[in-house]
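Milestone M4 deliverable, item 7.
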Amino acid sequence: MCYYSLEGSSRNAREDEVLLVDQFTHARKGLVAPEDANTGVCLTNGLRLGLLFIPESTRRRYGLQLEERATFKLRHWLRRDVLFLDNGRKVPFQDLEIGQVVRILYQPVGFTPATSSQDDAYGTVQQAVDAARVDH
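Output delivered:
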């Protein structure tokens, strides 16, 4: 997820890093490090992350706990990236609130996303998240 990389500086996310959701140009949201809000942080497909201190409104809307773990799925051509939570729910990245705290857990080795013809429709993405995977 680096749509904003064309508009300014960016870098890849690092394992165990804590980031914040921020507003970029053209009403797009992205991630930044608290110490450098001018550099966008890119997520790669299959990246495991933790959502920390999830705001009440987001928790109610998606039926979430205060903290959740998820797998990021890059939807580059649609610009509709999705978080597949371990509880089975899906949250569009752009629905995260500004200021949401995100901790990068790890990039699975050899991760290959499952694709199907249903992947073309935003609301019908189907991909199983391996909830049995033990995060470090």
